[in-house]
Amino acid sequence: MEGYGQIITGFAKAVAGMVVAWVAPTLPYLAICVLAIAVDCFTAWRCNRRVYAKYREAIKKNPNIRLDGKLKSQHMAKMINDMIVIFLCVLLAYHVEGTLLQHLGNLHLAQYVSAIFCVVQFVSIIENESTGSNAVWAKVMQKIVADKTERHLGIKYKEFLKQTEKEDEGKNV
Question: What is the model's pTM?
Answer without folding.
Answer: 0.74
